[in-house]
């Protein structure tokens, strides 16, 4: 806790029991030329010395060095270095030589081993346990086993021993289930139930506030040395133990049934345990997230559930996804995110193998960026926080030689470091999994083609979801290049504080790599009225200091936008390449929304890559023929199947002439010949076809034609007259000719 005593300005221990090297630490000054090197810091071997003193006192039947003052005591301990046999010297000093000499030889030997002056020659506690004195009992000591962490290569159940009679496990003595939970869980719940650590310590007078005037020195010398102020108690060793009362917490949880502590994961009916408070809990689910996160009972049940699911990771990966859709308990967020990102393997060994010490050219930039990154947070602004930041960022730069450090990478690292502050390896592993999924090739040395394509698709998304806003922003020349690069390059960590990022990323990690577009559009829609009312300069000012954004509303709206977006509409040729299928047998089942378009098998009906200049020329996104078939629910018979709930409502608009339309068209599509609806200058004409179009305003409109060029012009005209959700069929009607899905109307008799 104190970095071997370096972080506190007092020796750890009591004067009479201090090891010589701890006392020497106090008299050592780095500037003193007579000392060659600093003494060894405090550590387990200093405890071996203290144990020796305690054993000596027990054998001699008296306390050591009680009759001389502290400074003399410390001097005496330091002079023991000149003596050959410290045990005999101490016995002579205290007049108990006879008592000590009568001790069994093996005990004297143990005392000498403990009271070895030089720490380099003194035994460690583990070695000491092998001493003959402990022969009879050392076999009963089980070697310490480090609790197995979630992401490691060792078996989690290697040391699991079940009793002969399984009923022994189920003995319900006093039903104190809370006592079986981990200390970090109980402390978290204690705080939620109204516990306040600072208040407790103030009540016990461990934290004492002094009036500022009383802290002034009486006398200050020119070089800054001050006199006349006693040392502040709070800087000295205080070994008071404060027990925090659980009464308030137990009282709060008294209605939680015992079953709640042992949820059944395979129960199909419900994720919430059937307890007397379950009705109350199911009503809690509908409350805003911020209230749910502060509800003690709700958090207890969610934490227990996630704890169970994470312990069964990766087998319960699908259930983790399902539960995370509801919410992620703040206490386990770091591990839950790691599970959602699919972290596995021995992450610690991998992290340890990366060279984080050798200077590299990026060091200077990292040093400059860290002190500006989320420094309102106590953890991240602490010296330890800065050191960890430096190590994790360096590990990422060193282990990704094909990528470079861009400003903003520090912001991206911040949420992972904050959540896994005591597990740098996990923070590094999460960051390394997050970047290829959401920011593939964003950190190339020359990333302009990737970013330009990303921003162009974002512009198309704005036009797709909110044409009125899109038209206004394009009119005043306020393009995404001016405001959205820090959004996407840092996945919004540069523009929002951490507590908002947590809620945003809880959902982001459930979506695919195109979900950030929807978040971007949702942010613009929150600022919609102000953007529509203002010109270029005002918009620039508005974004230079982004107004308060309601993050819960943003998340809700981005999910709706995401559901309305056909999957291939956000196709990017610079997105991450398809991952090999079925890598470990625990892969998530690809649901419609969380799987990425580029992971789907490529067919003749998939979207073709477009040159950037062509992509920029199109106001509306293209969608693939397979998406159209999927969303229109077309079957081989050509009859549109019933529309499933959850998928976008969609209408195919065929803009070819009536003659071409009658030769073969998509089943269920409407024929709106281009020339009959728009005048040459792009005005919408009044006619039955345009009336039909108006009826479908709000659905996803897929424009189909022979030549994609005319579809592009038609779509841009629709966007100009504020038709939302307009897209173009990539490859036109010709793509569908080979599928056998086109129908011909039966002749009129």
UniProtKB/TrEMBL annotation:
This is TBC domain-containing protein kinase-like protein. One of its GO terms (molecular function) is protein kinase activity. Residues 1-134 form the Protein kinase domain. Gene3D superfamilies: putative rabgap domain of human tbc1 domain family member 14 like domains (1.10.8.270), Rhodanese-like domain (3.40.250.10), Transferase(Phosphotransferase) domain 1 (1.10.510.10), Ypt/Rab-GAP domain of gyp1p, domain 3 (1.10.472.80). Residues 646-745 form the Rhodanese domain. Keywords: GTPase activation, Kinase, Transferase. Residues 327-512 form the Rab-GAP TBC domain. It comes from the Eukaryota. SUPFAM superfamilies: Protein kinase-like (PK-like) (SSF56112), Rhodanese/Cell cycle control phosphatase (SSF52821), Ypt/Rab-GAP domain of gyp1p (SSF47923).
């Amino acid at each position: 806790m104190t970095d071997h005593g370096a972080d506190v300005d007092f020796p750890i221990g009591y004067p009479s029991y201090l090891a010589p090297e701890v006392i020497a630490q106090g008299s050592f000054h780095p500037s003193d030329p007579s000392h060659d090197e600093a003494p060894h810091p405090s550590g387990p071997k200093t405890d071996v010395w203290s144990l020796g003193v305690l054993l000596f006192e027990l054998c001699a039947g008296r306390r050591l060095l009680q009759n001389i003052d502290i400074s003399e005591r410390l001097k005496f301990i330091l002079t023991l270095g000149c003596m050959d046999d410290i045990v005999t010297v101490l016995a002579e000093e205290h007049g108990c030589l006879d008592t000590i000499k009568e001790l069994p030889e093996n005990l004297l030997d143990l005392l000498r081993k403990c009271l070895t002056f030089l720490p380099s020659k003194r035994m460690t506690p583990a070695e000491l346990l092998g001493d003959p004195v402990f022969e009879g009992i050392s076999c009963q000591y089980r070697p310490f086993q480090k609790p197995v962490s979630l992401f490691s290569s060792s078996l989690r159940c290697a040391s699991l021993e079940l009793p002969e009679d399984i009923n022994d496990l189920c003995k319900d003595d006093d039903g104190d289930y809370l006592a079986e939970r981990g200390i970090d869980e109980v402390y978290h719940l204690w705080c939620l139930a109204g516990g306040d650590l600072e208040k407790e310590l103030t009540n016990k007078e461990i934290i004492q506030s002094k009036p500022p005037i009383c802290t002034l020195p009486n006398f200050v010398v020119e070089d800054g040395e001050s006199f006349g102020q006693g040392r502040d108690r709070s800087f000295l060793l205080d070994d008071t133990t404060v027990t925090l009362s659980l009464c308030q917490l137990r009282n709060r949880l008294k209605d939680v049934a015992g079953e709640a502590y042992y949820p059944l994961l395979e129960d199909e009916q419900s994720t919430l345990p059937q307890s007397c408070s379950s009705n109350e809990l199911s009503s809690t689910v509908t409350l805003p997230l911020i209230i749910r996160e502060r509800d003690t009972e709700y958090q207890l049940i969610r934490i227990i559930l996630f704890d169970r699911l994470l312990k069964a990771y990766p087998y319960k990966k699908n259930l983790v996804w399902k539960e995370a859709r509801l919410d992620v308990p703040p206490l386990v967020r770091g591990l839950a995110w790691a599970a959602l990102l699919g972290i596995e393997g021995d992450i610690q060994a991998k992290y340890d193998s990366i060279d984080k010490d050798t200077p590299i050219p990026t060091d200077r930039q990292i040093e400059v960026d860290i002190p500006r990154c989320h420094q309102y947070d106590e953890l991240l602004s602490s010296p330890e926080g800065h050191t960890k930041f430096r190590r994790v960022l360096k590990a990422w730069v060193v282990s990704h030689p094909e990528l470079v450090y861009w400003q903003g990478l520090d912001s991206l690292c911040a949420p992972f470091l904050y959540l896994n502050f005591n597990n740098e390896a996990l923070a590094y592993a999460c960051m390394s999994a997050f970047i290829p999924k959401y920011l593939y090739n964003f950190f190339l040395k020359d990333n302009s083609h990737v970013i330009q394509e990303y921003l162009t698709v974002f512009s198309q998304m704005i036009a797709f979801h909110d044409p009125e806003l899109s038209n206004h922003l394009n009119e005043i020349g306020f393009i995404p290049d001016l405001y959205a690069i820090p959004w996407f390059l840092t996945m919004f960590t540069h523009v929002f504080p951490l507590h908002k990022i947590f809620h945003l990323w809880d959902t982001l990690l459930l979506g695919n790599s195109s979900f950030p577009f929807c978040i971007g559009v949702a942010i613009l829609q929150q600022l919609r009225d102000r953007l529509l009312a203002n010109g270029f300069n005002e918009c620039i000012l508005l974004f230079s200091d982004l107004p308060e954004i309601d993050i819960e509303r943003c998340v809700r709206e981005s999910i709706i936008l995401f559901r309305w977006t056909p999957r291939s509409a956000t196709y990017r040729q610079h997105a991450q390449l398809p991952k090999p299928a079925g890598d470990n047998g625990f892969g998530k089942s690809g649901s419609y929304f969380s799987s990425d378009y580029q992971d789907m098998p490529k067919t003749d009906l998939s979207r073709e890559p477009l040159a950037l200049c062509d992509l920029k020329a199109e106001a509306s996104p293209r969608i693939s023929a397979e998406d159209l078939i999927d969303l229109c629910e077309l079957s081989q018979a050509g009859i549109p199947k019933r529309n499933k709930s959850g998928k976008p409502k969609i209408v195919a608009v065929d803009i070819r002439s009536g003659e071409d339309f009658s030769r073969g068209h998509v089943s269920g599509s409407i024929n709106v010949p281009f020339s009959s609806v728009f005048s040459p200058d792009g005005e919408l004409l009044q006619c039955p076809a345009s009336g039909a179009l108006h009826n479908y305003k709000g659905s996803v409109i897929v424009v189909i034609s022979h030549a994609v060029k005319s579809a592009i012009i038609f779509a841009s005209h629709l966007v100009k007259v504020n038709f939302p959700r307009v897209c173009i069929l990539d490859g036109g009607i010709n793509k569908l000719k080979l599928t056998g899905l086109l129908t011909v109307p039966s002749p009129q008799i």
